[in-house]
Amino acid sequence: GSVRCVVETGYQRRVHGDPRMKAEAVRNIIRYLDAHVAYQWFDSLVAAFPSNFSAAEVDSIKLEILSRTQLYEDISAILEKIASTSPQKDEILKRRDTIMQEQQELLVEKSGYHLERSGGLVAAIKERAAALAQEKYAKATLQKLREELGLSKENLEGTLYYAKLIFNRRNYDVAAPLIFSLVHMIEDPENLINALWGRLVLNYCLKNRAETIEDLKTLRAKLDEFSNGNQLPASVIGSHRTFLTHTAFVVFFSEEPKELERDFFLDIVLAGEPYLNVIQTVSPQLWRYVLAALLFSKNYQQSSTHVQNVSNLISREVFPKDNHLTRFFNETIVNFNFDAARVEIKGFAQDFAGQFYLEGHLSVITQAALSFLLETYCRLHSSLRIAKVAEYLELGAEDAEVWIVNLIRAAGLKAVVDSQKGIITLITHKSNNYEQILSNTRDLVPRSNILVNNVKRLFTMSKLSS
Predict the structure, then answer these.
(1) pTM, full prediction
(2) Phi/psi of residue 383, each to 5°?
(3) Which positions ≥6 away from 205 have C-beta within 8 Å?
(4) Rounded Cα distance, 305 and 311, in Å
(5) How far, in Å, CA of 124 to CA of 320, rounded?
(6) How far apart (Å, rounded) are the C-alpha atoms in residues 392 and 110?
(7) In this structure, is the dihedral angle defined by the CA atoms of residues 449, 455, 459 and 461, taken in order, positive or negative?
(8) Element at 53 (helix H, strand E)
(9) Are the C-beta atoms of residues 281 and 6 closer than 8 Å to each other?
(10) What would the pLDDT profile of 284-294 be if each residue is shown by its tens digit?
């Protein structure tokens, strides 16, 4: 069914009316991030837009994030800071001391319990950490280690929970070899997903960007596999997909995406309705980031699929046209009104004010939008006048011609330039039968798998009922 059918809440109206990444919008994203990812991201957000948050809001959000960790010293420091300006200072500090003592005792007790449950695996991995890292945690080596120790499912779970406790104390270097090893030793779907999340977050916190992106792709593939095979409940899969969507957003926009990293965010969020539902119902303010990511894409063959998906979503009015970026795409790829699209580009500065990442990359996105507009224009026309393009770009005829030639090369188009007449004639590419068949059958395998699993489930249910 359509992902459009959702009632717009008061929260969504407020976010749409005020596009700045202020406290309420940030909280809505942070609650769907791992606490350690959320803490690092929020720190970067405050540094980039200090005027967007009051000191009280910063302390409140940090306390909200830290409450999901065992970083009791950090929690204590914030509570002490809050108490210093509160009339209930003594009460707050007394409550803090009680909580800290209880949690520290509980942490020691839990650590000892799970360490014992690990069946010696924690000690074995710590002992061989250097060798395992050198072998890049080879699956064969880890399976051999598992057989040597005669490990059970309980031992692996104990190691996983112990690693999680160490990780939540921000001891990343100690937790890393444990979690990196467990990913190749665990077979239980739920524990495997948890271990994959642990590896992803560790790589993010350790600034291993390339590895983090690969972990996002691996996690998405596993969630799809377990969903199609009914190995995890739909509610659990849905929760993980929500966290995956928000984490992909943070990773993609944390820094300038490299050439080979430009499509992974789109590959996740435009993969199907489960991920689009996340954006529409949970964090609608992420939609403009999806559109910005599309402008950054340099894989023209792959991005054409994403453009078609976005065009369908805008045509169906799945997302409201309440900002200049959405209206730009609506005029460019739905209405093909390029003059109106050019007007929308001039409103980007207003849209991006106070927006994480977008505000600092206004000129880059504006240029990318112009390129996208003109590339679409070129694909629709067999010829175009250089003077018209120069008007769009606000350049002289000679500079406009150079700009068009560079665009044609980058987009893989073929053209004949007549500088004297000021006309560029485009040579259209007609896809051959093989390309058409490949395009039409690309999704048959996953769709067939889903159909087979649904039939199996119905067959099992009918047997049980009889």
Answers:
(1) 0.77
(2) -150, 155
(3) 36, 37, 40, 172
(4) 10
(5) 55
(6) 65
(7) positive
(8) none
(9) yes
(10) 888 888 998 88
Tell me how crowded residue 130 is: count the other CB atoms within 10 A of its CB: 9
DSSP secondary structure of 444-460: HHHHHHHHHHHHHHHHH
Cα–Cα distance between 39 and 63 in angstroms, integer? 10
- Tens-place pLDDT, residues 1-16: 323 222 233 333 333 3
- From the list 92, 98, 95, 31, the residue with the least C-alpha distance to 65 is 31
Q: Sheet containing 414-418: which strands, arranged edge to edge?
A: 383-385, 423-427, 414-418
Residue pointed to by tokens 């809505």: 28
Residue 218 backbone dihedrals phi, psi, to 5 degrees: -65, -45
The three-point CA angle 413-419-424 to 5° equals: 30
Nearest CA-CA partner of 28 in 55, 44, 10: 10
Nearest to 266 by CA among 252, 280, 256: 252
Under 8 Å CB-to-CB from 111, ≥6 apart: which residues?
Answer: 162, 165, 166
* Tens-place pLDDT, residues 382-438: 777 878 778 777 778 788 778 777 777 766 667 787 777 788 787 755 555 555 565
- Supply 462's token pair: 């009918």
Q: Is 70 helix (H, G, I), strand (E, B) or coil?
A: coil
- Between the alpha carbon of residue 432 and those of residues 372, 379, 429, 437, the distances in Å are 25, 18, 9, 9
